[in-house]
Amino acid sequence: MSSNSLFVILAIIVLPSVVLATDYVVGDEVGWTIGFDYKTWTAGKQFYVGDTLLFKYPVGVHNVFKVNGTSFKDCVKPPQSEALTSGNDLITLATPGRKWYICGFGKHCQIGGQKLFITVYDTWAPIPLPIPFSAPAPAPAWYN
């Protein structure tokens, strides 16, 4: 196999996952805050393995917890030691599936709606190969 062919094969397999990764600032210019509709923010977006989420907020005012579906629904925060607190918390979406995030400050999740749910899709879906065209085989004699 020539080096050019190898390069093309690698580009087809590896490049889409690298090029297609998207960096999201959660809430766009509003950031991670209370009183923002994150469900509307996610509408029309598709998140893939390799994408990143950046939670931007003033330090000491909010935080970010990754939780399960039940904790998301009930706004139950994990131990404080699991909080992200930098104000610029970058999360790389490493696995496909459902992901839930909440703010653990006061009642920000319960009353302020500071919670985010997304579904992450796998970028390594098989790429369909083109099927070469060939004329259909003639019908067997007994078929007529």
TrEMBL record:
It is a single-pass type I membrane protein. Residues 1-21 form the signal peptide. Residues 22-122 form the Phytocyanin domain. SUPFAM superfamilies: Cupredoxins. It is found in: Membrane. It holds the Pfam family Cu_bind_like. CDD domains: Phytocyanin (cd04216). Keywords: Copper, Disulfide bond, Electron transport, Glycoprotein, Membrane, Metal-binding, Signal, Transmembrane, Transmembrane helix, Transport. InterPro entries: Cupredoxin (IPR008972), Phytocyanin-like (IPR039391), Phytocyanin_dom (IPR003245). One of its GO terms (biological process) is response to symbiotic fungus. Its main location: membrane. One of its GO terms (cellular component) is plasma membrane. It comes from the Eukaryota. One of its GO terms (molecular function) is electron transfer activity. PROSITE patterns: PHYTOCYANIN. This is Uclacyanin.
